[in-house]
Design a protein that fits this description.
single chain; eight-stranded parallel sheet; 14 helices; about 30% helix; about 25% strand; globular
């Protein structure tokens, strides 16, 4: 049985085009586009017709940095794959790439299998995995080749968190050399964790225990230094590099310099760095704990440089680093010691709306919105044009977006399994109305009509930006 859906009368926006077109969906894929009102479009028939007059028709968002059910700091991220992907759908995201974790002393395969078990049958939208490499050795390096072959084509390493995820420069270099050979992409958390630990210890000894000191010890210069070091190690290895959650203007400058030298170096930032600042970390009565994440929020003046980086393509992707911990009982673990506050913010539901607001605020264009939130992340991680665009043959991951609807972001109305919103009370214009995942309505006029298990695992090819 062929099932057809017809979306009529909307403005179709992709990374490259804006056209008033009708979209025909057949068996879960985009079958055709035709200019609205033309005989070709008028001749189409379908079992389901969606009127998108006055609305945008955009590709489903691709969020390539989420942490569902992540064990961290003696607790777990509060969103499961079920709750987190449902919230993502509400926010217009139809694909996530989450991080499977290798524990020290264990194999990559064990970590990947554990994450498959968490996600399988539970996701509302499609998903893939990156692999966190915590223990570089000869066996790990061989396993990297096998994972690339089966569609896990990116590996994350940490210059931060000694004793947990940390890799030293030698381990990083070895993994980069391997990825240079097997086509994988190294993703780097670039902060000098060894130096940061010294500053944490010194701050606590001085009695500086409040959340705001989290931002003060994780200095922008130590993000920039680590970013520079990661770039040079990648250059030595002849490997591409993707730097995650860039928050500091000094780190953006390092990326821009490397890209000007023609290196395959890429950068991602997140909404929290574009819209929040150290002012939030300094909120009284321990409220600042809600905003503790790493890399940390920076002083407000960094925001303009991040927006500029997104306009000049020195930063290519906006992901969320969605890693929620409830204020009550989780963030509170760090009362009296900021270093014990679980690091992470909720945001998978807010990204598309915040970036639309950025369009209205004049930071980026509509097409750049789709480029940094849908098309580029899909290309960067080997899913384009199946994901990230509206074109014949692409998966029918489509969002009907009302650019005029106003909303106030709040924990009372969001769908993430966390007891606060990082954007509580923020007014934005633009709202997701209907979301199709592979042609199936998972959000229908703002109501959830999907189900756990609709989302399927998506193997990925290698980065599509490499020569």
């Amino acid at each position: 049985m062929t099932t057809r859906t017809l979306i009529r009368g909307g403005l179709v926006i992709t990374a490259s085009d804006e056209i008033h077109a009708d979209v025909l969906i057949e068996d879960g894929r985009i079958a055709a586009l035709a200019t609205s009102g033309t005989p070709a479009a008028e001749a189409w028939t379908a079992e389901r017709t969606i009127d998108a007059t006055g609305k945008y028709v955009i590709p489903g968002g691709v969020d390539v940095h989420t942490h569902m059910e992540l064990p961290f700091g003696g607790t777990f991220a509060s969103d499961t794959f079920e709750t987190g992907t449902r919230a993502a759908a509400h926010g217009g995201t139809t694909t996530i790439v989450d991080f499977a974790v290798q524990s020290v002393g264990r194999t990559l395969r064990e970590g990947l299998d554990a994450w498959h078990a968490k996600a399988e049958g539970n996701c509302a939208i499609d998903y893939g995995f990156h692999m966190i490499v915590s223990d570089v050795n000869e066996e790990t390096l061989k396993e990297m080749d096998l994972l690339v072959e089966e569609g896990v084509t990116s590996f994350k390493q940490f210059m931060a968190y000694p004793g947990v995820f940390y890799s030293d420069d030698g381990q990083i270099l070895r993994a980069m050399q391997r990825s240079a050979d097997n086509g994988g992409l190294i993703m780097m958390h670039a902060e000098n964790g060894i130096a940061i630990d010294v500053l944490v210890e010194q701050a606590l000894a001085r009695g500086e225990t409040d959340p705001r000191y989290h931002g003060e010890v994780r200095k922008a210069l130590l993000e920039a230094e680590a970013t520079h070091r990661a770039i040079r190690l990648a250059q030595v290895a002849g490997a591409p590099l993707y730097v995650v959650h860039v928050s500091a203007m000094e780190a953006v400058a390092e990326l821009a310099k490397a890209r000007d030298q023609g290196l395959n170096v890429f950068g991602e930032t997140c909404p929290q760095y574009l819209f929040l600042s150290t002012d939030n970390l300094a909120e009284p009565d321990f409220e600042g704990a809600k905003y503790v994440c790493s890399t940390p929020l920076r002083p407000r003046e960094h925001q303009a440089k991040l927006w500029k980086g997104l306009r000049t393509n020195d930063l290519q992707v906006v992901s969320t680093d969605h890693c929620p911990f409830c204020f009550v009982g989780q963030k509170e673990l760090g009362r009296g010691d900021f270093s014990k506050i679980p690091n992470g913010l909720p945001g998978v539901e807010n990204r598309m709306d915040l970036l639309h607001q950025a369009v209205l605020d004049g930071h980026i264009s509509r097409r750049r919105w789709i480029e940094i939130a849908c098309a580029t992340p899909a290309r960067m991680f080997g899913m384009y044009p199946k994901k990230g665009t509206i074109a014949p043959g692409a998966d029918a991951d489509v969002v009907i977006y009302d650019p005029h609807a106003e909303q106030i972001m709040s924990a009372e109305t969001h769908h993430m399994n966390v007891d606060y919103s990082a954007y509580e009370g923020k007014r934005v214009t633009g709202r997701v109305e209907t979301v199709l995942s592979r042609g199936v309505p998972v959000i229908t006029e703002r109501e959830y009509t999907g189900h756990a298990g609709h989302g399927v695992y998506t193997p990925r090819s290698t980065c599509q930006y490499l020569n």
